[in-house]
Amino acid sequence: MAESSERLAGVTSQYEALRNAALGYTLPPEARSGLLLFLRRGMWGWARAMATAGANPPLPRRTAMLSFPTAEESRTVVHIFAAMAMNAEHRGATL
Length: 95
Prior knowledge:
Blueprint: H1 2-22, H2 32-53, H3 71-91
C-alpha cells in the first residue's frame, strides 16, 4: 500500500509540474518526456502510460495506440485522477 501511495504521489507531482508549465512556470527537464506524451496522447493516454510505466513515462512512439485498457489499467488511471483531484482540493484549485 505504501508503494502505491508513493507512486500516486509521484504521478501527482509529475502532473503538477505539467500544470504549472501550462500556467507559465518553468518545466523541469525531467518532466519534458511527460509533456511530450501528454501533448501527443492527451490526459487519458498520459495517465494510462503513467499507470503502467511509473513516474518516468516512455517517449511516445509513432504508432497509434489502439489497444483498450485492461480493467486494472482503468482502475489505476482512476486512482491517479482521484489523487490529482484530492491534491488540487488541498492546495486550492487554480483557474
